[in-house]
Amino acid sequence: MLDVIDLNFLSGRVMPYLNRGLMMSLQLIIPASLIGGAIGVIMGVLRVFGTPKVRRCTDAVVAVVRGVPLTVQLMILYFGLPSLPGLKIYLSPYAAALLGFIICTASYQSEYVRGALLSIRQGQIKAAQALGMSRWQTVWSVIVPQAVRRALPGCGNEIIYLIKYSSLAYIVTCIELTGEAKVLVSRTFRPTEVYLVAACYYLAMVSAATWLLARLEKKLAIPGFGTQK
Amino acid sequence: MNAHQNDTPILRAEHFIKYLTGRKILDDCSISMRPGDVKVLIGPSGAGKSTFLQCINCLLEPDQGEIWLGDHRVDVKNTKELCDLRQRVGMIFQEFNLFDHLTAENNVALALRKVRGMSRADALERAHAELARVGLGDKAKLYPAQLSGGQKQRVAIARALAMDPTILLLDEPTSALDPELVGEVLTVIRDLAAHGMPMIMVTHQMEFARAVATEILFMEAGKVIEQGSPEELLAPGAQTRTQNFCTRLHDLCGESVPEEQERN
After folding, report:
1. Total domains present in chain A
2. Measured between CA atoms, how close is A27 to chain B, in angstroms?
3. What is the pLDDT of residues A195-207, one digit of tens each?
């Protein structure tokens, strides 16, 4: 088995390519998880505390985004938008992929946040109101800080999914880790080594994300709240 | 301290009617508070005591009725007036409702910063003063989960007092406490009463009610059916519903009334 793996080939040809792909993957994953996470929190709040109209709109967005495969969404963003009559929107491959990921991850995050918001006891809201706090002050300084802590495990799960579905970016010609691997395989015909290394890269990214999320959970931990220490 | 000389009510709740899930919970309930008044609401479970209390600061909006602060009628549809009302009417809950994610000092300081617009430092300084006043000066940095029930309720009282309320509503402040912790909370409340803080309290601590109340309101089925000083309502042989209720409370859990009856 070890004879099959040619270390010179790995370090000389595979890794330079895949490192370039890894950089592109990170450029997709990091902004998508941060921006998507922030939008997810806002959408979650609107879906619970918005006016009925706002709630219906945000619910509808989430229903569409969750109901359509991400591949199809990316195709629409990259190939579909330019051919829209009237407004011709051309997105670069990177912009199309990033936008697609942000929309997708925000929708899923909003669902985790919504669940956490609904779990906050009514008494917390009453206490804040009884002190004269407005509705939005109550939401942002009492409910959201508690809900985010409860939503964190779920949100972390979504970030780990995002790391893996970022591999779909290559279908809109945004060549990230999986894209580079495919190109390299078509040139070298050595899929075993190439994909094995790509798999290791993903595993490393997920492990790093898991570690970071665990640290964040620990940092945000409060006695009697969420994870007990 | 006796502040009965001043005759303008500081707060009046008039003719409250409230329906919840189709049932009439409050049926024409009124209460009027003068400086120094301590009024105790008692009555069987489901009588509407908590609902009445929560209507006074509009945590539940009454379907009908008027709220007056001094000689100003509060427009509860107006957000600013509603927030003003709630700042002036402090509330203590049965289940404390401390903000679980904040330390004791930040529980007290939050509304000072957000509602009063105080700076963080000023708010914390005030919070420390209020916590010291309820005997918790050394617990400022602890989270609710690290406090006992009695301590939590005292933090809640400090939090309400920090807003400089003109009146305090207490909804069964000791019902969720272990018996040995009731005393520390009642001491704080008794102290407030002695300093002339007007209060409306729902409680089943009849001995305490008799000691601090200027008036007892007995509620049943959404109505205030008896109203008077503890001496009147609980006088031996008074034949009031209030006394009857208290005797039954006593029979059930060995509390209050008889001692004084025997003496008389």
Report:
1. 1
2. 34
3. 999 999 999 999 9
